[in-house]
Amino acid sequence: MAYIGAMEIDPLRLTPADRYKLLVGLIVPRPIAFVSTRSRAGATNLAPFSFFCGVASEPMSLIFCPANKGDGSHKDTLANILATSTRGDGVGGQFVVNIVPHALGAPMAACAEDLPHGESEFVMAGLTEAPSKRVTPPRVAECPACFECEATHVIQLAPGAAGGGNIVVGRVVWTHASDDVMDARYHADPARLDALGRMAGLTYCTTRERMDIPWGRRALG
Ligand SMILES: Cc1cc2nc3c(=O)[nH]c(=O)nc-3n(C[C@H](O)[C@H](O)[C@H](O)COP(=O)(O)O)c2cc1C
Q1: CA-46 nearest atom, ligand 1
Q2: Could you give the C-alpha distances from 122 to 45, 47, 77, 142, in angstroms and in order?
Q3: Partner of 177 at 20 to 30 A CA spacing, among 14, 28, 33, 54?
Q4: Residue from 54, 53, 100, 49 nearest 77 by CA
Q5: What are the pLDDT digits (tens) for 51-91?
């Protein structure tokens, strides 16, 4: 199928809000990293991020992207990662990426509320902290899979700018996966995982409609 007509868009002519619309409307669906962190004072924090992706298996790594707030300051998640980094540049900062099943959509979205620093989203959303194995921040007991991570890079794309982007690269130092969703050969059952995806705005999708397509020319039938 060929598409007729096209908008040609120079991002430099757009407002940041419109650039955001292009990204979140066209790059869909996005997985959701439900990220738990702990401040130096010991307060736990939990927030969802859909600019998120697994990026490497050697070393086992993932990225997520907490943008700056409107005043250019860091969101609590990034502030905690930077604060718990021994070098101060984020490297070694600890966090846990919890995978969000469909059933946890409402508490996950609740945790996007900007709570006062030090107030826990776990308590507000009725979620349970479970101890992590290798890092200090707790994981979410209700999530079927969790990746404990240490940051290897924090790349600040526009330091101090409103909405400025940041990329956190995390090395996975431990993985939890419930027996309910994964077998002994590390095959996850997508139906049991029932992961949630994010579209634009307030819209989400499930992973309930699936298909197999072979690689290479065999895909053409
Ligand atoms: C499903 C979902 C995905 C989100 N993805 C992102 C994201 O990728 N980057 C970001 O900066 N904020 C994202 N947000 C907004 C943050 O969750 C929100 O700003 C939150 O308050 C940040 O929490 P913190 O200040 O405790 O770190 C998302 C919100 C929702 C509901």
Answers
A1: 26
A2: 7, 10, 14, 11
A3: 28
A4: 49
A5: 999 999 999 999 999 999 999 999 999 999 999 998 889 99
At residue 128, the pLDDT reads 98
Q: Token pair of 42, please?
A: 């010991």
pLDDT per residue as tens digits for the range 97-110:
999 999 999 999 99
User: If 0-12 CB within 10 Å is exposed, 13-18 middle and 19+ buried, where does residue 186 land?
Assistant: exposed
- Three-state DSSP class for 6? coil
Query: First vs last Cα of the chain: how many Å apart?
Result: 18
Q: Which atom of ligand 1 is nearest to the CA of 51?
A: 8
Distance CA 102, CA 112 (A): 16
How far, in Å, from the CA of 6 to the mean position of ligand 1? Answer: 31
Instruction: Report the C-alpha gap between 35 and 33 in whole angstroms.
Output: 6
Q: How many CA atoms lie within 13 A of 207 on its CB side?
A: 20
Residues in the chain: 221
* Helices and strands counted in the chain (H then E): 5, 12
Q: How confident is the model at residue 168 (pLDDT cuts 50, 70, 90)?
A: very high
Two tokens at 161? 């700018």
